Fold:
Amino acid sequence: MKIFKHVLCLTLAAVLLGNNPTIAATSSYQNTNINGINMNYINIHMNSNMKTVVLNAGNQMNSSDSLANMAKSAGAFAAINGTYFEAYNGNPVPWGTIIKNGKIIHISNGGSVAGITSGGKLIIDRLSFDFEVYINGKFRSIPWRINHLSTEADAITIFTPEYGSTVQLQQGAKAAIVKNGKVTEISNSDFVVPSDGFAVVYNSSVTYLLDERFKIGDEVYYKVIIKTTFTNVEDWNDVESALGAGPSLIINGTVTADGLEEGFFEDKINTNSAARSFIGTKSDGTIAIGNMGSATVKNAAEALKQMGFVNAMCLDGGGSVALYYPASNISTSGRKINNGLAFVEEKITDIVAVPTSSKVLLDGSDVNIEAYNIDNSNYFKLRDIAMILDGSKNSFNVEWDNSKNAINIIKNKKYSPVGAELAASNEMSNKSAVKSSSEVYLNGEKITLTAYNIDGSNYFKLRDIAGTLDFEVMWDAVQNAVIIETTID
Structure:
């Protein structure tokens, strides 16, 4: 095996290229040749300031544009083409699954889906979907699709505002239009989906079902049922952005490159060598997006496996292959495409943490403990609080799970010190604070606590901790004191 690499890494200073957006300092472009396959890809180390954005040409489901135009409009520092779409017969609608801003806006029950959570973790699985529509609390309808015009006479389809253009009804079709959770109109003509609602369209041979079930004023909502193969359904609850295509190449470290198994039947996908786009992740959580020269699915999977990928999936290939990364003057594209996936770094707003001037009283006694004030709330180190409460009825232990980048709070347990508790800083002055990226668990169950990282340590809002661990926090303006009480029920 011969590997040739050319790497361009960015320094910690952000790079500006003309009118291009700021480029994330935690990304890099790489060119590698493995087993004769040329790979061009971007490594992206996700952090709390990054987010993923599903790109839809013209912000609608049936349009097309270049990847570069869509990426620039989103302010992206990197982007790649997305799922399959109708590239040849007029209306460029998508064929694969799309999840945008945590909402399923298009589905396919074939291929695989790559999803990225709000925490920046990428997962891949073979998914299938069912829809259930509830009318006045009762399960009454099973739509086939979402945001995809259906020509079958007995089709039932959901349309949401993300469709982005006028819904053109087939002859004889009807739509129940829902706004703010209630049916406001039964329409037999073209319509625009309300921005605060959705519509359920019944084609000609099943409109009698709509007439039987939907009435003006009915309360209506729908559910999407996700069925998984390799992952847990719960894994998809936190997915913000997802694109379905395939075939999958590697899932959870195992090569899965089998187009027939995922419902693909064309040789150009299953067995032929072709240019391919891909998305994947390595064992350290690094996400990579890129494209490769002519390769079969099997050869693509083997090459990515050798490169250290533990999850990988093909995106649309052939003439749709496109990659955008202005930091290295990369802007490759073929035809105009319907959709893509972009990576955006949000502007960081400076947050100032001010040393707390108030004294702290624990059950009436002075406590020497470091704290900062952010937006009129006091923040303390979690281990410092655990130390001063040790031995009380509110004792708790703090454990660190490195594999999850997570803190686990164990209630009603003696605290195990690590040696730096209640240590005073050499200089208490105004400091920069950033939102903590660490997850927090309470007795193994994930919870949400407000926390900031200051000088490398996580500081938690005192009232959040009090509410979680059942002790009382009060403010005494006369004494300029924060009062912590463990004796009050």
